[in-house]
Amino acid sequence: MKSKLTISVILIFLLVISSFGQESNPIVKTFPAKAGENLQLSIDPGNIEIQTWTKNEVNIEVISKKKYKVENLVAAKTGSTIKFEIVLEDSWNNSVTVKVKAPANFNFDIETTGGNINIENAITGKLNANTDGGNVSFENVNGEVYVKTSGGNISGENVEGSVGLHTNGGNISLGNVKSGKSDIDTYGGNISVGNVDSDLSAKTHGGSISIGNVGGNANVFTYGGHISMEKVSGSANMETYGGHLSLEGASGDVVAKTMGGHISLENITGSIDASTSGGHVTAELSPKANTKSTLETSGGNMELKIPASAKATIYLKLESDEIDEKNVDDLVKSDFPAATFNITEDGINATYLLNGGGAKITLKCSGGEVKIKKWNK
Predict the structure, then answer these.
(1) Taking the CB of residue 203, how many other CB atoms lie within 10 A of it?
(2) How far apart are CA 225 and CA 353, in angstroms?
(3) Which pLDDT does position 93 carry in this prediction?
(4) Structural domains counted in the chain
């Protein structure tokens, strides 16, 4: 008798264990579909996974490893739009996943109140994805992309269209963007973007930013981290409260400001407004006519490279507590002759007229050395 009881207990235990490993009460819906149609999908709460296939239909399956109860379910197609909404009674059940299979040429408007969103294949169409808490990932998209998460990472491949990515706390990683503007921001995380054909805006409240080539204007800001960009076809605005700034080229006005870090600006055609409260400043500048540029550091060295053919007027103000005639040549080195050069108790004031003067360039350096060099482009 005791042996039979033991066997019964073991069988019940095994049955319970196996039931936890099985998917329970799935919901399956299938709709006829054509390329270019729309899917509006929302779950409260749960994860969303989307795959593409070659069939002219959309298949939606709700699965979970835990039992769940449905408070409300809408599954219908009206015209060219499929609408699927599911609300669970247990708002804390995050084990539910909605799996979708749809044509690759489709528009997706998807939302979850809490869960991850994963677009597993390339799509042609608009992508609008929103989660109140989770990560979002997508492959190549030939269409506009707008993604928002209240707390999670966003990662995507290449996009051909405008892009808007926002997270309240997480990293953002994106490939190349063609034929559209990019607006990217996170309240706490790093940002990495490939090449962008048009204008770019990237902002993080705490993290570093890395950007490839930009085919328009670039506006990049972080409260704490480094910023690096390759070539910008238009104007570039870079600002960090604590980190280094690096730009490989620009064909417009450049603003580069950091509260504590080095600034490196290469191959700039236009003007520069650069300042750091603690770091070195190096710049290659081919100034446009009638422009004004300012380079300033409060605790570092400065180096300006400028073409010998440039028409420019350079004003130098160097502040130092240790200036005498013996170390002047160490503090200021120039490939161009000075029109005026005055040594005072507080520092050095000098003027350089290149080819009769022209675009105004002001160099302000406190506690460092200054070099003005010919730039052989």
Answers:
(1) 18
(2) 37
(3) 58
(4) 1
Residue 377: per-residue pLDDT:
76
> How far apart (Å, rounded) are the C-alpha atoms in residues 101 and 29?
11
Q: For position 65, what pLDDT does the model report?
A: 78
ω into 103 cis (within 30 of 0): no
* % of the chain surpassing 70 pLDDT: 92
Tell me how far apart the alpha carbons of residues 203 and 344 are, in angstroms, rounded to a whole number.
43
Q: Quick one: DSSP state of residue 288?
A: P
Residue 119 in domain:
no
Question: Domain span at residue 330?
Answer: 262-377
Q: Tell me, what's the pLDDT at 326?
A: 59
> Could you say which residues of the chain have pLDDT below 70?
1-25, 91-94, 324-326
Q: Confirm whether 367 is domain-assigned.
A: yes
The sign of the CA dihedral 225, 205, 94, 51 is negative
Query: Distance between CA 166 and CA 237 in Å, rounded?
Result: 20
Structure-token match 């608009």, residue found: 126
Is residue 123 a part of any domain in this protein?
no
Residue 290 lies in a domain: yes
SS3 assignment for 19-80: HHCCCCCCEEEEEECCCCCEEEEEEECCEEEEEEECCCEEEEEEEECCCCCEEEEEEEEECC
Q: For position 94, what pLDDT does the model report?
A: 62
pLDDT tens-place string over residues 173-203: 999 999 899 999 999 999 999 999 999 999 9
Q: Is the dihedral of CA 77, 121, 35, 128 positive or negative?
A: positive
**Which residue in this structure is represented by tokens 């240790």?**
322
173-to-127, 137, 203, 348 alpha-carbon distances in Å = 16, 9, 13, 47
Strand blocks (E) in 182-331: 182-186, 191-193, 200-204, 209-211, 218-222, 227-232, 236-240, 245-250, 253-258, 263-276, 281-287, 292-297, 302-306, 312-319
